[in-house]
Amino acid sequence: MKLGIVGLPNVGKSTLFNAITKACAEVANYPFCTIDPNVGMVAVPDKRLEFLSNFFNAKKTIPATVEFVDIAGLAKGASKGEGLGNQFLAHIRETAAIVHVVRCFESKDVTHVMGEVDPLRDIEIIETELILSDMETISKKLERLEKGVRLNDKKILAERELAIKVKVHLDAGKSARTLELNDNEKAALKDFFLITAKPVLYVCNVAEGDLPTMENKYTAVVKEKTKAERAQAILICAKIEAELSELLESDQRTFLKDLGLEEPGLSRLIKAGYDLLGLATFITAGETEVRAWTIKKGFLAHQAAGVIHSDFERGFIRAEIMSFDDLYRLGSEKAVKDAGLLRSEGKEYLVKDGDIVEFRFNV
């Protein structure tokens, strides 16, 4: 999972990035302090792995990972090369989803690039630049398709029809992700490489005092906006996350308890990202290693096997599966088996989040 962190300058992007990756990206109270996109790999928090590691006395434990890309603050005119321009829009195209950090706090100490806090205006500025960039992309796509229309190829004609439909939507100032499409059109749209077709997770960067209630006058309007555009929103205090990242795990728990929180913002961010992209985790476990694997929800057993290695998918025979919850509840593999909950499944089995899987294959 690769997530691109975007937003206006001075909204807390790099502070949040530092906190969740401990990557020491430069943070400063002026626009464009991030000159190149900073990239950080983060382990996905998963308490199941710790239990399984101890249960199997595993030599190694390998969690799933999320790649965060901290993209420089965009500004008006970015799609035309102003600010830091198109080079950073290209970085967004490479991500699976957009994490849009929105400033939802007031502070005399941190300058707002627009002079005052207004999350909806800030969101609109970023969206406008992304839409303008996509308009240029779709125009070039249409030019190429027009050249192939004379061939009367059904695929080209269908793509041209879709491109026209998308262009009309973008010209109206609407993101591609809000366009109503059938399944075939959704599949074809992926090859258009549009930024605004990507799912968006809004991260409302709030003040520490807003954390207990998880709400303020700014976050309320952001959440209302998400309802109309198939997006999600979560609240995070980047400043608190930065402080948490400097503490030992035991001290983090105490700090979170004092704040009235059950888990760090990072955990909520990753969970929201998984939900937004429709992802799930299955686990392989034994004495050699315990490892988490990320798949799309709806993957069949042989497709999940292919995530580990193409040979596993090609030579798939069956999958031995038990649920983590069953193992945790019953306490042993034997108990799971005796209860009839250790199953041998074929290619058509739908792998579920938390499945512990051993693949049988022959190549």
Structure, described:
The protein is 41% helix and 20% strand. The protein is built from 14 helices and 12 strands. Strands 2-4-1-5-6-7 form a 6-stranded mixed β-sheet, with helices on both faces. Helix 7 links the parallel strand 6 and strand 7. Helix 1 runs parallel beside helix 8 and helix 4 packs antiparallel against helix 5. It is flat, with a radius of gyration of 23 Å. About 1% of the residues have low confidence.
Helix content: 40-55%
Average pLDDT rating: 88
Strand content: 15-25%
Shape: flat
| Strand/helix succession | EHEHEEHEHHHEHEHHHEEHHEHHEE
Gyration radius over CA: 23 Å
Q: What kind of oligomer do you see?
A: single chain
- Number of helices, where a helix is a run of at least 4 consecutive DSSP H or I residues: 14
Q: Give the strand tally.
A: 12
What order do the strands of the largest sheet run in, or round the barrel if closed?
2-4-1-5-6-7
Report how far apart the termini are: 29 Å
- The poorly predicted ranges are 30-34
Content-based structural category: alpha/beta
Short description:
The protein is an alpha/beta fold. It has helices at residues 13-21, 47-56, 86-93, 119-148, 154-171, 183-189, 217-226, 238-245, 249-259, 265-277, 301-308, 310-314, 324-330, 333-338; strands at residues 2-6, 38-43, 60-62, 65-70, 97-103, 200-205, 232-236, 279-285, 289-296, 316-323, 343-345, 355-361.
